[in-house]
Fold this sequence. Notes:
- With 216 residues, the chain is α+β, with helices and mostly antiparallel strands.
- Helices cover 43% and strands 22% of the residues.
- The protein contains 9 helices and 10 strands.
- The strands form 3 sheets. The chain has a 4-stranded antiparallel sheet with strand order 1-10-3-4. The chain has a 4-stranded mixed sheet with strand order 2-8-7-5. A two-stranded parallel ribbon has the order 6-9.
Amino acid sequence: MTYAELIAKIQVWWESDETAFLAEFDTFIEFAEKRIYRSVDLNTARKEDATVVITSSQATVTIPTEVVTLHSVSTLVGGNRTLLEQKDLSYLDDYAPDRTVTGVPKYYAWYDDVTLFLAPTPNTATAAGTLALSYTYRPTQLSGANTTTWLSLNTPDLLLYAVMLEVLTFEKAEQDTIADYTAKYQQALQAVVLEENLRNRGDSYRSGEIKMGATK
């Protein structure tokens, strides 16, 4: 489903072409996509081994501003990967109170929204490598300039119901109508979660296949 097709479907379903209503479409889509991304951990919204430069004798590193949830932090030095353990900043202050003392980092902590603190402070050997991050981010939203997305192509029903919930809120629809679309959204969401688990989280050889059949 494309951006134009989504707009056309919403207009048909809600039977409105008011200027104020049409002007809010991109906001409806933005909120709908965020609702979905906050509800299910989709692989399409994850990045693996995104690299960040490490500077010798500098305890902090700046991470990409697009990071929503950080899953893991590793150092990559000479082909060797070392997974760092997350701790509170107070723990790192106690573990490595003198930041001028360098070594191979073992821990990391959030310093602020876009900065990580490493301990010990990276030495020259560590700075020869990079920091590798695994994290969740927000893909570019569906819009007139970005006419298709993974969500619009692979989960058009879920996206449509999510947008309709934003429309109904904007239009101050009756509660029973909102409840009906909420149920449709939840049903589509569960189907996407199941599909995502089957596609990316399981191994038939090791775990066996999940089979679903009709209930009696």
